[in-house]
Design brief:
By secondary structure, the chain is mostly helical. 74% of the residues lie in helices and 3% in strands. The chain has 2 domains: 302 residues, ABC transporter involved in vitamin B12 uptake, BtuC (Orthogonal Bundle), CATH 1.10.3470; 104 residues. A two-stranded antiparallel sheet has the order 1-2. Strands 3-4 form a two-stranded antiparallel sheet. α2 crosses α11. The radius of gyration is 24 Å and the shape is globular.
Amino acid sequence: MNLVNSFKSISSWVIIGLIAAAMPLIFDSYFALTLLSKMGVLVMFTVAYNMLLGQGGMLSFGHAIYFGFAGYVSVHILNGIGEEFIPYFPIVLFPIIGAIVGAFLGLIIGYLSTRRAGTAFAMISLGFCEMATAFTLIFVVFFNGEDGIQTDRMVGPEPFGVSFGPQIEVYYLILFWTLLTVILMYLITKTPFGRMSNAVRDNPERAAFIGYNVRHVRWIAFTLSAMFAGAAGSLHAINYEHIGFESVSVVQSGQVLFMAFIGGVGHFLGPVIGAIGLTYLDSILLDYTEAWLLYLGVTFSVVVAFAPGGLAGLIVMHGPIANTNKSLLLGLVKPYLSAIGSTTLGVLGFIGVIEMIYFRSLISKGEGELTIFWTEFNANGLFSWVLFIGMILIGIFLSKITYRNAKESWDNAISVVKSEISS
């Protein structure tokens, strides 16, 4: 049985790798390749963060420290290639440098941080993050302040004609390391240490009672997570050929926290879903609205309040139904679509109101034409406000009905599954 499950896992990763490798054949523009490269880096970073939060139960507000500092060291080494002390170092091995930097910092900071758990641990991580950001702005000799450091990844020999100048070559470099590190992190979750990390997360008192050193388990998990975050930081620096103070800031730490939570910290693929989805939305929606961060905050709040398992949790919860009776799963399509439709109506109305409020705060009195959903609206006109507020109210009213129907359909499906399993 274990052999079958292992084969299924390996097959899944192979399929994911093949799909990712074929993406540049479909989306071959420079913007698309840059976006795909960014997704790969953030997938690695978010999965690394989930080792700390999802697997170890440690909420950190400062995990960007290892990501950013590894990027700074990588940039300095890149700029030093060709000098006497660094004659040459292959670009393809730079994530190893980042991993060493991340592991070193993780050992030191983790030794102090893991002395406490829960809220105290989170506050300690926030303090370290603010301190790290201050370091980058104060010690200009190494960090170059707010300007950050530029570099050029096209240095040294070009083995097999690969210079890592074209973005597609950087994408495949990131893809290779992302798949390798994500698979390694997945395998770690299947080891006895991974299980022990889960036990410490769920019941540290019982883990300590049976003889495990809870703090050492957390420290090791912290260091491993920092190590993989450092590898992602090196790839980030290579991808953008620049590193700045924002890469170690609480904003970067908050971004990876949002990705992990919205994707689903309780499931290994949850952070992958969150990183890909939010990176895409962040890159696309910034061209259409300045209020993207407001929508992100609302989405995060709604997910934490009503779907704590994240998007992956919503998918996984339907696994028993799909495995037992697929016709029951098909029966859920209609009520789900109705619930999604009513929610979408309310969300569109909410977006319209927010965009008009934001637009009116920026323009002079008397000007009111703006584009929402590819349609012209007058922010000063009564019709626009009535329309969008009406959409919100109708959406709320319909959601109460459709959500109740969806829940009843779900409860009926679960009841049938339980009866079939028991019989």
